[in-house]
Amino acid sequence: xxxxxQIGGDVVGATSLAGxxxxxxxxxxxxxxxxxxxxxxxxxxxxxxxRVPIRYSMLALMFLALTLPNPAEGQPTExxxxxxxxxxVLLNHLNSVDRGGLLGMIPVATMEIxxxxxxxxxxxxxxxxxxxxxxxxxxxxPLIKLAWLSxxxxxxxxxxxxVRGGDFAMSLWQVNVVIYLPIVFLLLQTSFRGPKDHWxxxxxxxxxxxxRALLATYVVYTTVLPMDPNTGSTKPAYGTAHAxxxxxxxxxxxxxxxxxxxxxxxxxxxxxxLIPIIMIGMQAxxxxxxxxxxxxxxxxxYLVSRENRLKRAIRRTLTYLTPVGLLYLLxxxxxxxxxxxxxxxxxxxxxDAKTDASSMWREYENVNIIATFRSNPLFGTGYGHxxxxxxxxxxxDYSLERWIPHNSLLGLWGYxxxxxxxxxxxxxxxxxxxxxxxxxxxxxxxxxxAALVSYGVxxxxxxxxxxxxxxxxxxxxxxxxxxxxxxxxxxxxxxxWTDSPPSKRRGS
Length: 508
Fold this sequence. Notes:
By secondary structure, the protein is mainly α. The chain has helices at 9-28, 31-51, 54-67, 84-91, 94-97, 110-128, 141-163, 168-178, 180-189, 198-222, 244-260, 266-285, 288-304, 309-332, 342-351, 357-375, 408-441, 445-467, 474-493, 502-507. α17 (408-441) runs parallel beside α19 (474-493) and α18 (445-467) runs antiparallel to α19 (474-493). The radius of gyration is 23 Å and the shape is globular.
């Protein structure tokens, strides 16, 4: 089935031809030609997947999920970024992309089909004794069991909702939000080799974040729209998608972790070049949650990290700057205009829901979901049911609001109750456990950096899920799935976990 360490010429040829066909199909722009080209490219991609370790396929899918435009996440301008149609076909249900066409009968995304292909490949390799994925470091069994528990809890919530008269079509959308994180984790962990693959994973995240930051900057600073009567701005409100907040925050956290643990000399150069680019992209994208995510993640990493020279320097700097910062907040708290006070307005909008209509609307949404949870705290409403609208919300252009609310984390409480919520989220908390175990006992700087970043990604994902539909976005799913995989592998690599029974360990 090919070399374990090298990609064969047949795979390179098949993958290159698939990419060329996709480019040709996009340039031609004809639906019939695009369908034919797409089917041939799909067959070539599946052939390549069968010939390489699963980690190669997952890294490629992760990069595509992080970089390709997803029309379902919104588009700030009429200009469509390159390969928007490819992102639509890969990341969205095909029946929503080709309504009334040949693909209109397929209610799944191409990404989901490829997941099924990879699971099938894994089953065949395991039953045939193939060694193509055998060099993967083992993953702690509790993490794997909790991934399956997450899937089981989702299935239970789904069936319990349908038994109680839930809407089947709406229930599928709700399941769609929570089912893919454990699936991505299971596929990533099955062939990732551990620390050997950390740098490859880092390159995917940093390259994707850099590209999306440059794209957001280009869109915002080259597009002129009619003047907004409320703000007076002629720029788009955002550059790419809200889900990119997770990507930007994770990339900055990755660079910070490498610097904090002094992984190698590349860290300083990478940070010097990439941090300004990513931060400019965050500013252009206009999502206040991104700044909150990286701020909270860095604070949590600072609190749990070991004492070192950099940490002492940060503490001294904060000691001197804190009085100045408090004075700045005090003076600018009630300022509604002026660019210099924009950070203060950002902080106030996060802690005070009365500052703008959007924040207040979400507070009312939270009240409704909490009331729904209280009506059945143990098992929730089950999927297929909307949350109770105790407070009547102003209408929004989002038909799934009462089934998939913006606060998707709180929505999980309402629909699945305490039992389902624990079943889904124990996987996340266990990732934190393994990451911290590896960090505090690890001796290799690269292991400690990987553990810190894995730990920090969890609050980033949680805040995105709390703030705006972050639970099931492809960006969040792949970044969080990778973090959980790294946490488990690095715990094993640093000698902080083994699934071998005690008697076997003593005799080895």
